């Protein structure tokens, strides 16, 4: 059950990060980073780090434009 919950948190974080590229990047990117940080407590580290990286990119990308 713990591995399944970590997988869900990671995938939801990745989906939020991808949505953040198109709509409200500060909100969705920030939420993806928070979910990624939460996901680091579970065994699926790759999903968590992917969520953190994509969320950070979505968060900071509008500031570069």
From TrEMBL:
<feature type="transmembrane region" description="Helical">
    <location>
        <begin position="7"/>
        <end position="26"/>
    </location>
</feature>
<keyword id="KW-0472">Membrane</keyword>
<keyword id="KW-0812">Transmembrane</keyword>
<feature type="transmembrane region" description="Helical">
    <location>
        <begin position="46"/>
        <end position="64"/>
    </location>
</feature>
<keyword id="KW-1133">Transmembrane helix</keyword>
<protein>
    <submittedName>
        <fullName>C4-dicarboxylate ABC transporter</fullName>
    </submittedName>
</protein>
